[in-house]
Design brief:
CATH topology of the largest domain: Rossmann fold
Oligomer: single chain
Number of strands: 25
Distance between the termini: 72 Å
Number of domains: 3
Number of helices: 13
CATH class of the largest domain: Alpha Beta
Shape: globular
Radius of gyration: 25 Å
CATH architecture of the largest domain: 3-Layer(aba) Sandwich
Largest sheet: 8 strands, antiparallel
Structural class: alpha+beta
């Protein structure tokens, strides 16, 4: 039993020593008829903050400056019904309200509303529908919330108080078409069948210079994968706003980063419209699911056939509407982080439908390095194995290795924000994408969310279906010739989430064991953090703004080397 001692020590660390049972904090939460006259399902959140610079709902995170949040599921909550938060409700970063230190706090409540879905699998599940915001619980239209007010927690706790949610987050206005950018939305037959209701896919389409003047032209397609885009990003037809107050980016330690962003967007417009720039279509896809801000662009048990819907419904529709060439040799994938994983996964899953992927800082592409966890060999994701010393597994660092948070902390915050993989956050969407569907219709847990104990059966399912390095190695005899020259991977060697570890393992396979040789590229940025994308000349805060043009020379080279003999290589080169 000694090998399990580290788990017991870890649980002691997690649960801590609660404050005296004599401390009592109870807060009752309700919503008014003015907010909703209907009974509601959802995740009810109570937040406490010592920072009055913005509302508590915008201050919840797992970093070094988190504010407090506690959560519970509610079903059929009625207007005027009081639901009480007490010491038994799980929270973050304190497990219980009984552990909240004495002091003054701004209190706020929010109900993240759920809808009922009857799936094609026969399951009935309750999940948050995206409402145009990209699955952001703190700003999703239709969610109920209260205005913050101040309370005081004493040494003995807090007298019973009531928080009433009377506000409703308003709808989000859709972006308008411009000369350059068009917005489309289509009903997906495949997704609607799976979810048991109408489900849609969208995209923002950047048109090339001369699109109207050259009706004879047909264009290659560049697909920029990533998180939910509210509009096409990084494109601006006017110089930076001269009245813009310069801000400060703590992430990059850069002053006036907002001005830099506008300048880069304007510079891209000038490159895009220049006489010698190749003419392409570029799209950013909107494919939020009830689990996250995007689907990860592959088919999955709990989210449905998003890979097929994007590849066989959305992409052909866009190519038909905007004169795309519509053949596999003319389509290219790129993106960073989530988008980096998607670019590589889509290329692997649909090898002949696309002609190259440029995967920057991809989410784990080998689950032996699922960040710092080997899901096949490790027993616990939260703590390193040790009989006498409980040491937590880190989850986020800076370029010098300074740690801001741990795997346990990220996952415990997610558990507060939503049970059953419904937090809308990073670890839960990996689970919602990669896991088999459980008997209740929700994704099976890769590990116990509270303790971190890994489920090896779920890990085996992940391996066979979504471990990209394993799939390539397993199927290279069939995939090798189809993928030659198409795989390009870039990552900083000090990626904040340790994603470079999986890239090392992928590179080892690609460079040393592929026959035929993969013929692509794997490159690293020295001391570069997350989002490094292959630019060895510019700092990360600049190169991350240049995705839409930096891979064009490599794409042009790929087209010249691989296009069929009868391919259209001229109509779009005007």
């Amino acid at each position: 039993m000694k090998r399990y001692h580290f788990i017991l020590f870890g649980l002691m660390l997690v649960l801590g020593c609660q404050r005296s049972n004599s401390r009592k904090i109870e807060i009752a939460v309700s919503f008014s008829d003015a907010a909703s006259a209907e009974n509601l399902d959802g995740r009810l959140l109570l937040m406490l903050s010592t920072n009055d610079e913005k509302e508590p709902r915008f201050q919840i995170n797992a970093g070094l400056d988190p504010q407090l949040v506690f959560g519970m599921d509610v079903e059929g909550m009625m207007p005027g019904q009081a639901v009480t938060f007490d010491a038994s409700v799980f929270g973050f970063p304190y497990n219980s309200l009984a552990d909240v230190p004495p002091g003054e706090y701004h209190v706020q409540a929010l109900l993240h509303t759920y809808e009922t879905f009857t799936l094609a699998t026969g399951h009935t599940v309750k999940l948050p529908m995206d409402n145009g915001e990209g699955q952001q619980w703190n700003r999703s239209p239709g969610n109920l919330y209260s205005k913050p007010f101040k309370i005081k927690v004493g040494e003995k706790g807090l007298d019973h108080i009531t928080v009433v949610m009377e506000e409703v987050i308003p709808p989000i206005e859709a972006p308008e078409d411009t000369e350059w950018i068009k917005h489309i939305k289509i009903r997906s037959e495949k997704l609607s069948e799976f979810w048991g209701r109408d489900m849609y896919l969208g995209a923002h389409v950047l048109l090339p210079q001369g699109f109207k003047e050259h009706p004879e032209a047909q264009y290659p397609l560049m697909i920029f994968h990533g998180h939910f885009p509210d509009d096409f990003g990084g494109f601006r037809t006017t110089p930076p706003d001269p009245n813009l107050e310069p801000d400060y980016s703590a992430r990059f330690d850069v002053k006036g980063y907002n001005i830099i962003q506008q300048q880069e967007a304007y510079d891209f417009y000038k490159r895009w419209s220049a006489p010698d720039f190749p003419r392409f279509l570029i799209i950013e896809i909107q494919h939020p699911t009830p689990y996250y801000d995007d689907s990860y662009a592959v088919n999955s048990a709990s989210q449905g056939p998003y890979g097929d819907a994007i590849t066989y419904e959305l992409i052909p529709y866009i190519e038909k509407e905007f004169r795309g060439i519509g053949e596999g040799w003319s389509r290219f994938l790129y993106g960073g982080s989530t988008g980096g994983w998607e670019a590589l996964a889509v290329q692997v899953k649909y090898p002949e439908e696309y002609n190259g992927c440029f995967a920057a800082c991809p989410d784990p592409i080998d689950f032996r390095a699922y960040c710092l966890t080997n899901i096949y060999e490790d027993k616990n994701a939260y703590f390193y194995p040790s009989e006498h010393k409980p040491l937590e597994v880190p989850a986020h660092r800076d370029y010098l290795g300074h740690i801001q948070t741990t795997v346990r902390e990220y996952n415990h915050l997610e558990l507060v924000l939503g049970t059953k993989s419904r937090s809308g956050q990073q670890w839960d969407i990996w689970e919602a994408t990669y896991s088999p569907q459980g008997e209740d219709g929700y994704p099976k847990r890769i590990w116990d969310k509270l303790t971190g104990t890994i489920n090896p059966e779920v890990a085996d399912y992940w391996k066979e279906n979504y471990d990209l390095r394993h799939i390539l190695e397993r199927d290279w005899e069939q995939l090798g010739e189809q993928l030659q020259g198409k795989i390009h991977i870039y990552c900083g060697d000090m990626d904040n989430y340790y994603l470079n570890n999986a890239v090392y393992l992928m590179e080892e396979f690609l460079e040393n064991t592929t026959d035929p040789y993969y013929g692509g590229e794997v490159d690293y940025g020295d001391r570069a953090e997350h989002c490094w994308n292959g630019d060895q000349e510019n700092p990360n805060h600049i190169s991350r703004l240049r995705y839409n043009s930096m891979y064009v020379p490599k794409i042009m080279k790929r087209i010249a080397e691989s296009a069929p003999k009868d391919a259209d290589l001229t109509s779009w080169r005007y």
